[in-house]
Amino acid sequence: MARATATTAKANTRKAQAAETRAALLAAARRVFSERGYLNTKITDVTAAAGRSTGSFYEHFADKEQLLQAMIAEMEASADAHLAQHDHPNDHDLTDRAQLREHIAIAWTVMREHRPVTVAQFQSMIAADPGSGRAWQSLLEQTTTLREHLEYSRAQGHPLPGEPQLIAAAIGAMLGMLGYATPATVQPKDDDRIVDALTDLLHSGLTGPRQTSPQ
Amino acid sequence: MARATATTAKANTRKAQAAETRAALLAAARRVFSERGYLNTKITDVTAAAGRSTGSFYEHFADKEQLLQAMIAEMEASADAHLAQHDHPNDHDLTDRAQLREHIAIAWTVMREHRPVTVAQFQSMIAADPGSGRAWQSLLEQTTTLREHLEYSRAQGHPLPGEPQLIAAAIGAMLGMLGYATPATVQPKDDDRIVDALTDLLHSGLTGPRQTSPQ
DNA sequence: GTCTATATATGGATAGAC
DNA sequence: GTCTATCCATATATAGAC
């Protein structure tokens, strides 16, 4: 079948077409990953969804793993731009409810907005050999900032439930797993409900000072 | 190579040998799953580790999934026997620190003692198509008891951070993911440290009433 | 019931024309 | 750069002898 070779106003140069194909593959991967996930998706699924050929795929990516890396790079660029709007000094105090909520909300929003990528990344991590320790390593890496904030809080005199590294990993585990498992169909207001609940749970736990419901 | 056909005192009946082979396959699967995990393990990896043939495998299990189901059944039988030692009435109050810790400790211990199985089960769940909602469904199922306890606590007048179902899922997500990611090499005393930290975090959160360290 | 040997299916990856 | 056609590696599952 004939495929549009210049759907945009861009000049139909060889270079521009390559970029177009690459973008089409990335976009198709996002679509396919959100349904079938990363592990069950075959290269041919992506190329079929993009309307390209298998051979063309390998002109842009060495394999499926490299495709995922490119998607992660895109996401991080986008997330960094988003984060630049907020100030993120190191001296955050996560024992302050508002600041804790802000962090949870940002993490949750990024996971939601880039769901196909985070889902794929999560699957890829889990599929690694358990003996390799990659899951633990990944958990530590993704919670580095969180850990630093906790260390700061502790230095300020707030005693923590445990070592900052462990607490950060626990929180990261909760957010990551919940973000993966939560259906894509939840509404924005549910997102708020979830962020509020997680914030309260992590801020003051199950016994924190909350008003008893009126009954 | 010659393989022992009657390593035990049992009579070498056809039936006994079948049971022996089945047990050998299950034991081999535990060993292999703990290193390479469930997803990356091939049927031939299991049979090779068990010293049996591929053809023999299919005499006992229809496929890898059924092998895992058999391992889960074994684990649940073992866990139930273990749980029978404690009383588990429905009227537990997880806002009580000791009772919360008990629950976390049991969950953590089961995950540790049956690590190959829980790891395999976790991988199998994650590998399912994200669009199927299996991860969310699994999370709800595995936290049913937890949810009931939380509902009880709430009925007793303890306000929770959110809906019991969501809070239970969040706690389950934390425990499940952390149990998966935590290296198999941690020492028993580290297990205690982890259980204590998680208990404190979930009980009173990051700001709960704890003594400031002497400094 | 267990074995060896093999059929079958799948998907990753490449060659060469356009 | 993109395509079609194809090679090739891998793993599931079965057939048939013992």
Structure description:
2 copies of one chain form a homodimer. With 215 residues, chain A is mainly alpha-helical. The first copy, chain A, has helices spanning 14-36, 43-50, 54-60, 64-83, 97-113, 115-127, 134-142, 144-155, 164-181, 188-204. The radius of gyration of chain A is 21 Å and the shape is elongated. The first copy, chain A, starts with 13 loop residues before the first helix and ends in an 11-residue tail after the last helix. The relative contact order of chain A is 0.09. At the A-B interface, helix 1, helix 6, helix 7, helix 9 and helix 10 of A face helix 1, helix 6, helix 7, helix 9 and helix 10 of B. Chain A binds a DNA duplex (18 and 18 nucleotides) through helix 1 and helix 3.
